[in-house]
Each structure stands twice: as structure tokens, then as C-alpha cells.
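Data card: per-record layout.
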Amino acid sequence: MNVIIMGCGRLGARIAMLLDEQGHSITVLDTNASAFRRLPEGFRGRVTVGNGMDGPALEKAGIRATDAFFAVTQGDNRNYFASQLAKEVYGVKRVLCRIYDPVREGIFRELGLETFSPTSLGAGIMVDMLLKGSTPKGS
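The structure for this 139-residue chain is written out next.
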């Protein structure tokens, strides 16, 4: 599968590593070239400096031939805009968008995006830890 990951922070780098290990064709797009240092040694994918809200940058990253697009920058609005661009303009089949604000997540989901809110998920896990005494897997 051809995948573009917009944002090479901790999450983007981790997603890139996991998909690369599974043999997928990965391109990581970030506005800051130094962010690529987070990628593991031996990463076989491509890296591209550019803004995922910019059509020419997405095209340089290979958006016209991509099967999936992850928007995982620190900005909810950037992630939303780039996700809509990937989905509506370039027809990417799967577009996954990280949104920190739970209210915005609901709105963006209603607009047809596949969203993930670490704020909502993390809050639920921590409340369960407190009330049920359970520790999430991987801790």
C-alpha cells in the first residue's frame, strides 16, 4: 500500500516505522527537515519537506498514487484542511486525521473524515485506571 504521513513527530515517525516494517511504501512529509531524525535507522521510505496543505507539495510527495493519507501534525486545523484536500481533491481512499480537540473531532467526523482524538482516548483510559485500577497494555 502507498501511504503518505503528514507530520514526522513521535506519532508520525512511529506509524511510518510500523508500516515500513510491514513492507508498505511510505512517504513522510514534514515542513521541517530535522523532524526526519525521528525515523528509525534503516527506514526504507521516502522523506519530503513540504506543507501538506499545499497541492504541489502533496503532488511531489506522490498523493496522486497514494492509497492512504495520515494527517498527524500538532495542528487540528492543518490536519483537517490537509485531510479534506487529500480526500476531496485527490480522491485518496483512506484518510486518517488526528484531532486533539474532542469537540472538533466530532464535527470533523460528521463531515466524513476518519478521526482519532488522543485527548478523548487518553482521558477514558486514565479514568478507567483510576476507577478500575487497570493499567493499559503496553505501560
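Known properties of this structure: The longest helix spans residues 118-132. The helical segments are 10-21, 55-61, 76-89, 102-110, 118-132.

See the next section for split statistics.
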